[in-house]
Each structure stands twice: as C-alpha cells, then as structure tokens.
Amino acid sequence: MTLTDLANPTRFLALSARVLPWLAAATVILLTIGLYQSATAPDDYQQGATVKIMFIHVPNAWLSMFVWGVMSVASLGTLVWRHPLADVAAKAAAPIGASFTFLALLTGSLWGRPMWGTYWEWDARLTSVLILFLMYLGLMALWRAVEDPSRAARAAAVLTLVGAINLPIIKFSVDWWNTLHQPASVMRMGASTLDKSFLIPLLVMAVAFTLLFVTLHMAAMRNEILRRRVRSLQMMQASRVAFSSEVGTGSREENASKGVA
Description:
single chain
C-alpha cells in the first residue's frame, strides 16, 4: 500500500483499525521494560537518584521537537501536494506535541531544582522550548478560531512552517550560547558520553515514547476523520432541511396566490 492509497480516508481507517492494537501492545511492552530498566539503573555519582528523571525528561524533549517536525512535513503536504490527510495529521498531532512539550518543561524544572537550585532559568534552551509550547497552543487556538476548515488548514500550515525555525534554535542553543544545559551526550559526533547502564534504558524509553506518539497520533487521526464525516453529514442534513423548508414555503405561497386569483 502506497502513500497515494493512504490518501483515501476510508483505506486509512481500515489500515489503522488493524495496526492500532499491535502498536498499543508494543508500546505497553516497551514502556514496561523501559520503566523497569530506569528504576533499576544505578544512581549517578554526582546527581544521585535525581538523574533518573532523565529517562522521562529526555524522550519528552526529543518528541516535542519531533512532533513539530512531523507537523511541518504534513504542512507541506497541505500547501504543496494537497494530500487529503495532511491537515488531519497536523491537527491530530498538535495536542500530543503540546503534551510532550509540557512534560519536558515540567520534568526539566523538577530536575533543575536540585541541580541548579532553581525551577526555572531564562536561558536559551528553556526559553526556546517554552516558545515551542506556546506555538503549539497558538496552533490549536487557530484551528478553533477559523470556521472554514480549508482556510484554517492553510493558515495553520504556514504558521507551522514558520515555527519550524525554532527547532534548530532549540537543538543548537547549548552550542551557540552559554546555557545551564549540558551539550548533547547521545546524538553527537563520535560515541555517546553516557555509560551503557544509562544509555540503554534511555534508548528503550525513547523508542517506547515514540511508539506511544505513533499510537496516539493514529488514534487521533481516526477520531478527526470520523468527526469531519459527522460534521459533513450534519451540514448535509441541515441543507436538506433548509431546502425542504424553502420548497414548502414556496408551495404555500403559490397555493395562496392561486386561491386569491
């Protein structure tokens, strides 16, 4: 099955109905393994048990940017290729991405308090992630504010692509400016600086959270497609009722005019 085939919402609904149970099961299994490995990981010699917040914080931070990247690709699909499901994919991903970004900010604050002595510091990394969270909220507000779905889709797509400029700023902020965050320790040139006792649970949790996003995103896309179908049926029903009322009014006026004649 190609991407062109998946452009048909009916085919997407059929495929997702078969895939979702397997995705959900794989997500639960990997999350269970990852949480167990995270709980049994050794304490850091400097941070102690606080370092285990990393296993939740880092996957959420990764996904906060990854989801916006997915939305950017979907926005190109809306503006350039006119893919029927592109706007559905972007709109369904926004609340999920906002949730990951909020969790990244929350866990980062909890991790920063014992390490930095404060829950919040206006450095480049924290501020750029906060801006990303506000952009997610702005996108969701935009979709709700514009009644015409096609206009809302185009406006949201443009805003998403413009907002993608923030992604490299978040990624390289620790290299460009003097921030409290340490430089990249996993995705970097050369080998990772993390010991395997921390790296393996972190990678398992990253894959588990990615599968969680895919599962939630597919389910949200299904709900959005069904919601739009219900809306279309309601509009068709309202049009029929209005048409019937106009026909009935016209018939009564015609009969009245004949009676007068």
